[in-house]
Amino acid sequence: MGPLPRTLELFYDVLSPYSWLAFEVLCRYKNIWNVSLQLRPTLIAGIMKDSGNQPPALLPRKALYMKNDVRLLGQHLQVPIHLPKDFFFVIFEKGSLTAMRFLTVVKLEHPELLEKVSRELWMRVWSRDEDITEPQSILAAAEKAGMSTGRARELLERVSTPQVKNQLKETTDAACRYGAFGLPVTVAHLDDETYMLFGSDRMELLAHLLGEKWLGPVPPAATARL
Amino acid sequence: MGPLPRTLELFYDVLSPYSWLAFEVLCRYKNIWNVSLQLRPTLIAGIMKDSGNQPPALLPRKALYMKNDVRLLGQHLQVPIHLPKDFFFVIFEKGSLTAMRFLTVVKLEHPELLEKVSRELWMRVWSRAAEKAGMSTGRARELLERVSTPQVKNQLKETTDAACRYGAFGLPVTVAHLDDETYMLFGSDRMELLAHLLGEKWLGPVPPAATARL
User: Fold this and answer.
1) Which residue from A137, A148, B32, B186 could staple onto A131, CB 3.0 to 4.6 Å apart?
2) Which of B16, B118, B127, B188 is catalytic?
3) What does it catalyze (chain B) (predicted)?
4) Nearest residue in A to B183, CA atom
5) In the CATH scheme, what is the code of domain B6-159+167-198?
6) Does residue B109 come out as left (phi exceeding 0), alpha (psi in the -120 to 50 range) or beta?
């Protein structure tokens, strides 16, 4: 048996487009590098509050920059990101609390579906400009990911229970203890050291720290380990 | 003759460690890609003021993060960055006005030395090792005397304004002029994307020198 896989924790929120970019790149590499990817649904609003930071989109020039940056990176990383028509309303008014609580309960009950459900929520809000706050929106995402309607409804009913609320809060606190001031945050656990990397643009550095090869943001599937 | 080189403008300030990282990567690639690298000394304090942004180091968690990030990137990009002990003092109290005015006049009078002098200044601020940039002490003194002249002050202000018009809220900013489009990229971490936009190959942050065009 070869060396043990190194754990990578990805703290993410579906409200964050850069989280989606990091998520897709890491999902591609989890079958190429000797790593174990742990997805950790987190609330970006909680990170902002705890760190004293502000969403970058509040600064006009950053908002303008982000729109282009997200579009170009989407093309380069081959992730179908398209900005919602009312960008600010989606981020600041609608938010992601229910969605992230839902992903929290999915992780508790059906961890094998967490990747797909997360992706479907991103596809709604950051690709097709669809709602992710209403119950029927979340159910639609869960169904698209392969969950039965009945099961999805059961999980949705649990989003406001103390267990689920607390779990999301704990994950958000964990990210804060790693020093997060935003998302996505990737935490790499190596034998001798733990690294916290912020953003979707530290993946080549991550490869270097892991002693793995960087094959660009869209690595050939043929090199995947089985 | 092949296609014309594409112009890349790099707006930078020696006060910005990420500017140094972007600078070194682009200096490596200027001899590999079909580009013409234009170095543009800029005042980061002016960018902050004009954009309403604040230096990231003012937020405690960002300051903590930057220390590690800059150290790790320095190792990965093979740039000898070491955060000075008085990190905050350097950034907030000392600033870079004279240094950037000096680089402005170097660009006016000795553009062929701009790369080396810029590197020398970064080495002084961000590294324990210092190298000579090859300018005579006498000539350096002459140029230093000109830093407070209107011509030099205005040139630095113009370059800083140009960066702002491209939408800068910080540095480094790389502006790539392609046939059909102009791209403004912020940070030292958009170089692989830049390669993609240029239709060039990304060979990592430390490309083999053997592939350099002569």
Assistant:
1) A137
2) B16
3) RX + glutathione = an S-substituted glutathione + a halide anion + H(+)
4) A68
5) 3.40.30.10
6) alpha
